[in-house]
Amino acid sequence: MELIDGIAVSDKLKNDIAQKVIELKQKGKKIPHLAAVLVGNDGASQTYVNAKVKACEKVGFDSTLLRFSSEISELELLNEIDKLNKDNSIDGYIVQLPLPKHIDEQKITQAISPAKDVDGFHPESLGKLVLNLPGFLPATPAGIVEMLRYYSIPTSGKHCVVIGRSNIVGTPMSLLMSRNATPGNCTVTITHSKTQNLSEITKQADILIVAIGKPEFVTADMVKEGAVVIDVGIHRIEDKSKKSGFRLLGDVKFDEVAPKCSYISPVPGGVGPMTIACLLKNTLLAVNS
């Protein structure tokens, strides 16, 4: 069993991006500028956004953090989105999800300019993914592809099973794994909460990508010997024995599943760092496009 080190892979990607920023500076060209919109005081969202701001500093990007009260109206937030769309100094921006319940996330996502949609969530970005056209890939699926590439994990002709069908991870992941590319060329099965005999399907997977959002959902009896397992989930579980007061778990019961795997991504330190690195990669793409 080999551990897929998302921190090492993301560091390599960020170093490559930092080198390209140095080259842009030397040529007197624009430095990439990423903005983040944070609504409310959700602890996990604040942690993610702060990590993104720090990553910008590390690679030499300019960054802006816009914070708004959870009481902001949908119309007011749409007005802020419009300002970002028109601000030529900002190349790309993200609106951190989830948003307060009184705000329609889909309406906000669709208001983001496709040219600045570095999260890859806009319908135009997803449409380009479907048609295999150049564009912004959703950061988490793109990060998983980068990890598979870094470790030279064979994918062509393999059976990839994806657990989860969200527009953010599951569905775009299935498209990336099935397309005619490397990594890619898999036969893909998407499973979800209504799938019957789930474990029978997951036991057929050469590559199992788990994004179901349930702590330690996948157990050893659901995984075949030698499988590659990518764990997308992350959950804070109260643990008074820890200094932080909590521990992090994935969607996979790691200690039980890992011995059966050829490769497995841990939580933390697996997919999470790759999401941020690919967000930076999209922002660099936004400057050059």
Explained architecture:
The protein folds into two domains: 28-122, Rossmann fold, CATH 3.40.50; 139-272, Rossmann fold. 39% of the residues lie in helices and 18% in strands. The protein has ten helices and eleven strands. The protein has helices spanning 6-26, 43-59, 74-86, 105-111, 123-130, 139-150, 170-178, 198-202, 254-257, 271-288, and strands spanning 2-3, 33-39, 62-68, 92-95, 159-163, 187-191, 207-210, 227-231, 235-238, 246-249, 261-264. The strands form three sheets. Strands 1-11-8-7-5-6 form a six-stranded parallel beta sheet. The protein has a three-stranded parallel beta sheet with strand order 3-2-4. The chain is globular, with a radius of gyration of 19 Å.
Task: Give a brief outline of the structure.
The protein has 289 residues and is an alpha/beta fold. The chain has ten helices and eleven strands.
Using brief descriptors, characterize the structure shown.
10 helices; alpha/beta; globular; 289 residues; Rossmann fold; 2 domains; 18% strand; six-stranded parallel beta sheet; single chain; three-stranded parallel beta sheet
Helices and strands in order:
Blueprint (H helix, E strand, L loop, with lengths): L1 E2 L2 H21 L6 E7 L3 H17 L2 E7 L5 H13 L5 E4 L9 H7 L11 H8 L8 H12 L8 E5 L6 H9 L8 E5 L6 H5 L4 E4 L16 E5 L3 E4 L7 E4 L4 H4 L3 E4 L6 H18 L1
Parallel strand pairs: 1-11, 2-3, 2-4, 5-6, 5-7, 7-8, 8-11
Antiparallel strand pairs: 9-10
Helix pairs in contact: 1-10, 2-10, 6-7, 6-10
